[in-house]
Structure formats: structure tokens, C-alpha cells
Amino acid sequence: MGKEGKGNFQLKTPKGTRDWSGTDVVLREQIFTTITNVFKRHGGVTIDTPVFELKDTLTGKYGEDSKLIYDLADQGGEICSLRYDLTVPFARFCAQNAVQNIKRYHIAKVYRRDQPAMTKGRMREFYQCDFDIAGQFDPMLPDAEILRIVKEVFEELPEWKGKFTIKINHRKILDGIFQICGVPEDKIRTISSAVDKLDKSPWEEVRREMVEDKGLAPEVADKIWTYAQLKGGKDVVEKLQAMPEVVANESAKQGLENMALLCDYLEIFDVMPALSVDMSLARGLDYYTGVIYEVVTEGSAPSASTKDVAKKEKKQKKSADPDEDRSNDPTIGVGSVAAGGRYDELVGMFSGKPIPCVGISFGVDRIFSITKARLSESQALRPTEVDVFIMAFGGGKEFTGMLPERMAVAKQLWDAGIKAEYLWKTKPKLQNQFKAAENGKVPWAIILGEDELKAGKIKVKEMGLPDGHPEKDGVVVEKAKLVEEIQARLSGKASLPDRTV
Amino acid sequence: MGKEGKGNFQLKTPKGTRDWSGTDVVLREQIFTTITNVFKRHGGVTIDTPVFELKDTLTGKYGEDSKLIYDLADQGGEICSLRYDLTVPFARFCAQNAVQNIKRYHIAKVYRRDQPAMTKGRMREFYQCDFDIAGQFDPMLPDAEILRIVKEVFEELPEWKGKFTIKINHRKILDGIFQICGVPEDKIRTISSAVDKLDKSPWEEVRREMVEDKGLAPEVADKIWTYAQLKGGKDVVEKLQAMPEVVANESAKQGLENMALLCDYLEIFDVMPALSVDMSLARGLDYYTGVIYEVVTEGSAPSASTKDVAKKEKKQKKSADPDEDRSNDPTIGVGSVAAGGRYDELVGMFSGKPIPCVGISFGVDRIFSITKARLSESQALRPTEVDVFIMAFGGGKEFTGMLPERMAVAKQLWDAGIKAEYLWKTKPKLQNQFKAAENGKVPWAIILGEDELKAGKIKVKEMGLPDGHPEKDGVVVEKAKLVEEIQARLSGKASLPDRTV
């Protein structure tokens, strides 16, 4: 990056953006495909909204982070801005089209004019990958479906099975607990933000913030701590339901009933083993109204001594938007890899008619980085999907290069849908053809020899076999049966029995 | 669109943009998948570049159409613009990374602040779908591969097989012919643009433009016409090669040798039947240096009386960029559905080191519109991919709704990767469940009955069977074998033989 081109021209992408290419883009596409397959399994439909919206559409949705919105230049006509997330465009879409219910997914880039930190993975252009359910349904059924989707995604991503935890809480339980503890109504949101830091800061630091910075009575703070430490499975819900002061609070009571029902559903869906009901989870965004959740993984949770972290936290003013905290500093972990919750009021901000919504956003950039690190230890990605490289064997003055013959074989394979390449040289050296196949990690070679071809035969060779393997030099097959032979080998079946070895 | 929201707020997408949803987005995704599969079959790798580039990167690449570029507001820092096409970012990528060779595809949105004509399909945000090959190879081999890709794409798109023609010409042949006819060197580009109108205007009108507007001698124009009428297969190349004055021209001679070789290769690849060597094809863009081609289809070629068209042409100043001519006016056709050519100099504009390139851009918006029109006559698209809808059968006071049972079946199917839904109601009416399945065009229903379930049985029903069909009311199968049963039915195999009818 930053290489100079002709003259004074800077040959680079804009600050905070990057090109994706090579095996990085291959892996990212695999992640998208895995996630999309899960979304489709649950009846998801995709929508595609414009990359920019009327500026008014975004105004008043992001609080002080509105300053991070990219505006288009005023070139006459409407004033527009690049989208900041996919949720507000989704709410605009629902309101504009008076959508009654939808399960929609959207995988697309969003834009934030933040101070980029490329090494930490904080970019100005990055992908979001959202699934949201809008509509009026019986309680906790869409919520359960979302959490089942989360489980399927992380079980199906390579190297994630068994390595993730879904932390869950409920805004109504939290609000109820704050009331019970005696937090004044106007301090509930700010105290909630303080509680949300408990995954990164020790209690002493959070307590100090509550008492010194936010003016909470110390005994109220200490009471919050007795609840905030609760975490576990459904037992946490039952424990709270057994506390008379808790169920006496209407908000907490309702939230706990919701959570108990959700746990029943998640029991059926086999999601409970991955779940952690966690009273210290609060989430930053104001618009959540029900369940809230985030997914953490090995290496995404904080790993440094809590004191160091507390110091860092003090120095860095934390952004109000939880997604902004995309630090990859290994001493503090990367934060959550997916997060979401129920937000029943957002669509109403556009149309005046609220539609209940619940959703999840997968942080594909973080998921990509972690997956890449885990994979690189075990397996290498193929840069292309080409399965067969067609080569000509020969040399010397007599060697024609067999270009028409290689092209004819390529055509035959393409006609059958097989991914195949050959070298664009009339007389290629065998060595260069092997090199090209190896560079592309192509698993199979077809090698044409003039004598064999005259006899209607063709050689098929698996690349990368160890010395001494009986098929190291390839096997000779009938040219007429080439496609079936290759298809059998690609589908992992034993090759055709009647081939000539 | 244009509905009013709360207060003065306008609930709409920006001018010239639209949301994609419903079966439109399903069909468009199918088109993307078909095209991507072909690209991958030929070893294509994708790259993803930022949606905006440094303004300097785009400057000086689009001539007078530069005024259509969207700029980002100056909010401090670098000055950026939204990409206008995918070709210039690709050239920037190749130069920046000193790419020696690549087969890259890129499917993404581009932005042009043109006067939108939504009914004609001319949008300010639209998709391009490009495949380009960069690198030094033996002559015409990458060019042949691109044209084979074009053939495969249009043969595999639904309702396109046999309905497209690839028009092809070569800049060097054209330039040679112009020299032979006596076109002054400084008029070659502008006369070339006039010739390019022959697909929409009659010769009389093009001749008038050449002579009256562009000051060409009438006998020169008439000589051009003798060549411009030539069209056909390889015979056109042979006819020109048999003309002594043509082969005496070095440029024409080289171009014809190229074309003859390309035709030999396309013969092997079975592309010739779809090809029309057409001496009236010139293409607008300046940067082409070798073969040029465009794909036309029934309904994309002009259909009105040529006089009317000529009048229209006179009124509308034609844009210098051929992609701009996206009119859907049925009297003049939609123009080409894919176009491209060889451009050996563009990368050199960035790095000073030219890399030979050849490419194709598919006009997915046009392809979408034509495919949609053709499909709507015969078949309906499914809005989701859900294969199974799980229902509870029952009613009256005793009816529990069997929610846990429906959820358990859903889990069982999801675990097996089967796409399934159920109604998010604790006690749904059977009628509403059928309605939901019908609305989603879900092909299969699983119907739970309390008595059957107790006996370990479950009913499977194909939706939409005609009255009198033996399986109209469904078939009862073992609950334990449900997944195999569904998988067998979805894979199109006969259902398992041992099921209970």
C-alpha cells in the first residue's frame, strides 16, 4: 500500500479501506456461504438496499456517533449519506413498504468515518451480516429461532464448533433489578452502560465509575453487584424467580417469564449447552427492549490482567456504539463476534406504526480473522476452485504442444460442468504446466501424450501423491470415458473399476 | 415509493436507487449464481475493492462522463469518489500490486449521477458483473476463453439458450479498413463512432453524419459501406483475406490473422454457431486495442422502423460511454446485454507498465429484466427456499397446538440441513398454516396429529397435488424415518419403499 505510481499519483485505496483478494477473499466467501445457508434453512429472504440513503433517514438514529457518518457531496439534488449500518435501512424498508412480517437477511458493507486501526481490524468500510425478524408473533418464538440460527452458524463455521458461548440477558430483568436496587429512573441507562463493562473491567473499577463518575449511592452499587455476578443456565432464571423482591417488580417478573419460556424453547432446539444467562450483560444500544445477547469465543474474551485493562479503559473513552469496539489488541480480546436483541420500537420511528423486531448481526471481519488464525495452523485454502489442469507431455523439435487437443479436452470438461484450466501457451514446458497446477493447488492433472492419444487413451494423475504411491505417475484411462472418470474421482468415489492402470 | 412518513420526513430511497426484494432479488441472485459458476469453472478468482476510490484514481479515465461521478463530501482528509465502473478499480489494483497475471471476476454495484429513467431501467446505482484476464499469453487464447465464458453464461441462464448472438469485430481490422478507404488519421475515431450506429440507424443517416457532420468525402463514406455490410461466420474473415488491398494494409492484415486464429479456437470450443463476425460493430470506448464484442438477443435488437429510430437518434445526443445507452424503450430495444474487448494500455495509465487485458461486462440489470419477462410466461419463482412446512392438525378445546412437537421436528430437520418452517403461534389454525405454506410456495408439508404421533407416525404431504391424486391427503410415515423420507423426496427420488400409505 502507499506505493507511488506515475508522477505524483498515489496508488492506494482510501484510508480505512482495503482490497480483498487471494485466499482471504476465498475464506470470507466461505464464511458468507455458511452463514447464508443457515439463514435460508430458516426461511430467510434477502433484501438489497442502496449503499446511500437520504441523510434524513439516518439522522437521529445513532446519537453522538452520527459524526461518523459519511456524507455525499452536494452536487445538486438530494442530500445523501452512506449507510452506517444495515438496521436503520431495514427499518426504513419495513416502514416504507408497510411490511407486516419478514425474515430478512442482508450481507453488505457499511461505512463509518472513524479513526481506522487497520492492525486492530477497525476499518472505515466493513461488512455486516444481519438476520432480523419483523412481525407480531407469539412470545419468544422468533427470539428462539434467532438463537438457534446463531448456534447453527457457529457449529458450521470451520473450527468454531464447541468454541463459542452465547451470553444472554433481558432488558426488562435488568431494568427491574436496577429499580429493586434503588437506581433512580434517570440513571438506569447510564448505570446499564457501566454494568456492560464488567466483561472487560473488574468490579472495583465499574463501582468507582458508578459512584464517583455517575453519582450512584455506594450501597446501591453494591446491591447491583450481588445480582450482576449471577451467571449460568436456566438455574439463574429460577434463582431470580425464587427471590420475592425480584418477582414483586413487574418489569423483572415479565422479563423472567420471557426468559423461562425462551429457555424451554432453547431446550428443545438444543441451544442451552451453548448458552450463558449472564446478569452482567447489558449491551450499549438504547433501542433494545427485550432479550439481548452476544457471542464470545476463545480469544475474543479478555485475557489480560484486569488491572491493565481497567487502565486502558480509563484512557480510551468508550464509544456508545458497541460495534465500534473492534479492537484486536491481543491483551484485551476482540470483543463479541455476534450480537443482537429485540427492538420493538425502531420501525415506529419511521412510520409511527411500531413493528416488533428481533435480530442478530454477525461481525464477519472478526469471525474472518479468528477463523483464518485457527485454519492456518491446520489446512491451506485453495486460491481457485479449479479441479483439473490439462497438460501436454512432450519436448524436442517434434513436440507440437497439442494445443487443439488440450482445448478440446477443456471443452469436454466444461460441457460437463467440470472446472478446468490449461496453460495459454502453444508449446508449454511440462515443468511450467506442473508449476501452474501446483500454484493453483489444483488437485488433478490430465496429461496428454501423443502416442497415448492416438490409441484413444489419456493419463489422469492426482497431484501431490507421495513418492512410492502406486498411482504416483498417474493412471491411463479411455479418452471416451474421461468425463465419467473425473466426475467419479471428484465426487470422492473410487475411480471407475474398468480403467486401465 | 415517495410515501410520506411521520411529519415532513420523506420515506423513500434516493433518486435513481431502489430496494430489491421479493422474487426480484431471488431471480437476480440466481443470475449471479449462474454467472459466478461459469467464472469459477474457468479458474476465475474474485477481488473486492472499496466502493469509493481516491478521486485522483478516477480522474482522466471517463472523458466527458466524469461529470457523472459521485463525490463524497469533504469532511477532512482524502478526497474520494464512488466508483463509476469496475474496470478502473481493477486496473488500479493490478498496478498497485504489480499483478503479473490474473483471471478476476467482480460482481458489484457502480454509481453514475446520470438523469435516472427508472422505467427504462437506467439507475444511478446498478450492478456490473465483470470477468477480465490480465497478463501476457500466446495470442488469442485468453480472448477465446472469454468468448467461451460468454457462450456458457447465456446457455445456462434460464430461457436464454439459442436466443443470443455474439457480434465480434477487431479494432485493427476496422482501423485498416478506414485507412484503405482513405479516412484521414485524425478522423478514424469519430468515423468509427458513426459506424457503431449502424445497428440502430439506416446507412443513409450514418452516411449523412459522416459527410455532413464530420466532413468525410462522400466516396470515402461509400467505400466504407461496402465493407461495413459484411457479416457472417469465418467466411467474412476469409473474404477479407482474399482482398489484395486489405491484406496489403499492415493493421488489417494483423487483425485478420488474429481473427482467423480466434475462429479456429472458437471452432474447437463450439462457440462459432453463436458468433457473428460483423464489420459494422465498432464500440464506443477509446481504450480497446484488439477484439471487441457485444451480445444481443431477441428483444434487445432494434425493432422499430429504422426511420423513427434515426429521428430519435438525431434528437438524443448519444453518450460517449456505450453503457449509458440503457434505454428500455421497446421501439429501440435495450441494446447489448454484455460487451467487452481487449484493452492492452489501461493498466499502464497507473503504473507506467502496461499489462495486456481482455474482458467482458455482463449487463445484469438488462439480463434480469429480459429473463423476468421470459420466465413470467412459464414459471413462478419461489420467494424462499423453504422445503418443508411443519403443521399441527387439530381443533377444539382439547387442541394443544403441539408447539413443542413442531419445534422438535423442526430441530430434527434443521440438524439434517433441511430448510423448514413452522407457524410462530402456540395454537395455530390448520387453515392459517396451509395459507402460510402456500404463500411461501413451500413444496412439502409435515402434518402432526396427536393420535398418529402417539403411534410414532407422522404425515407427509406434497402441496398442490390435484384432486383425485392418490397422495392428495398425504402419506403416513414412521417418525423415526422422517428425515430420510424427506431427503428422498427432496432429492427427487421415489419416497422410501417401506413407508406406510
UniProtKB/TrEMBL annotation, chains A, B:
UniProt main location, coarse: cytoplasm
- Compositionally biased tracts (Basic and acidic residues): 318-328
Show the GO MF annotations: ATP binding; histidine-tRNA ligase activity; RNA binding
Which GO BP terms sit in this record?
histidyl-tRNA aminoacylation; mitochondrial translation
Superkingdom to which the source organism belongs: Eukaryota
Enzyme class, broadest EC rank: ligase
User: Mind listing the UniProt keywords for this protein, alphabetically?
Assistant: Aminoacyl-tRNA synthetase, ATP-binding, Cytoplasm, Ligase, Nucleotide-binding, Protein biosynthesis
Question: One GO cellular component from the entry?
Answer: mitochondrion
A Pfam short name = HGTP_anticodon
EC number(s) for this protein? Answer: 6.1.1.21
Compartments annotated for it: namely: Cytoplasm
Task: Return the annotated region ranges for Disordered.
Answer: 304-336
Aminoacyl-transfer RNA synthetases class-II family profile domain span: 16-383
Binding residues for L-histidine: 85-87, 112, 128, 132, 283, 287-288
Which reaction equation describes what this protein catalyses?
tRNA(His) + L-histidine + ATP = L-histidyl-tRNA(His) + AMP + diphosphate + H(+)
Family, according to the entry, reads as follows: Belongs to the class-II aminoacyl-tRNA synthetase family.
Role played: Catalyzes the aminoacylation of histidyl-tRNA in both the cytoplasm and the mitochondrion.
Tell me the protein's name: Histidine--tRNA ligase, mitochondrial
